[in-house]
Amino acid sequence: MRSYCIRTATPGDLDGARSVMLDTVYRDLGTGYVPRWHRDIIGLDHSYLAPARHTLLVAVDERDGTVAATAALDSRGPAHPPNPRHLAERYPSGETAQLRRVYVRPEHRRRGLARRLVHQLLDFAAADGGYRAVYLHTDPAVPGAEAFWRSLGKAVLDEREGSGGGQSVVHFEVPLP
User: Fold this and answer.
1) What's the order of all strands across the beta sheet hosting 170-174?
2) pLDDT at 97 over 90
3) What is d(CA 50, CA 86) in angstroms, rounded to the nearest whole number?
4) For 43-66, what is each residue's pLDDT tens digit?
5) Please, what is the end-to-end C-alpha distance for the chain in angstroms?
6) What pLDDT score was predicted for residue 166?
């Protein structure tokens, strides 16, 4: 059985974390790298390590030292546009902890890594004391993603519902511990 060390990322972890993230956006999300959506992946240090209220966690496979999974949190709420105005107003930047880049390499899935990472992010948000909500969005086309987030939080907007052919995105709120 594999053992993992979950910890706050260090500068030495960034190449491995970036690899997990880029592989995920190409393989699972099918978008490839899109600068307006994925700029934080290239600048992980400036996005997650430098700001005091942001963090990047990694799950490191203790067998070979590789990064098996990532999870990040920042203080930026959903932007309008592209998200609906009411969502941006409900989850304003500075008061909202947004969960991002919760990605697990396929060969490490079904071992509880994502859940452990998210719980540590929630503890980080609670310890900060300045966050009043935890928000995220997910692509329900990614196998297992929607069910995973529904097990942890409440869907606040499913863009597949309604008219106008919106994005295929589900927005969630996860309770602070």
Assistant:
1) 4-8, 55-61, 67-74, 96-104, 133-138, 170-174, 154-158
2) yes
3) 30
4) 999 999 999 999 999 999 999 999
5) 30
6) 55
By DSSP bridging, strand 133-138 and strand 170-174 are antiparallel
Tokens of 41: 């992946």
- The continuous run of DSSP H or E covering 137 comes out as strand 133-138
CB atoms within 10 A of CB 165: 8
Ranges of H-type helices in the chain: 14-27, 35-42, 44, 85-90, 113-128, 145-152
Question: Which residue is listed with tokens 């099918």?
Answer: 30
- The residues near 118 (Cβ < 8 Å, ≥ 6 apart) are 71, 99, 102, 152, 174
From the number of C-beta atoms within 10 Å of its C-beta (0-12, 13-18, 19+), residue 22 rates as middle
Q: Which two tokens stand for residue 151?
A: 């097990």
**E-strand stretches of 39-132:** 55-61, 67-74, 96-104
Half-sphere exposure of 120 (CA within 13 A, CB side): 21
| Separation of alpha carbons 58 and 172, rounded Å | 22
pTM for this one? 0.95
Amino acid identity, residue 138? Answer: T
> Would you say 45 and 11 are in contact if contact means Cβ atoms under 8 Å apart?
yes
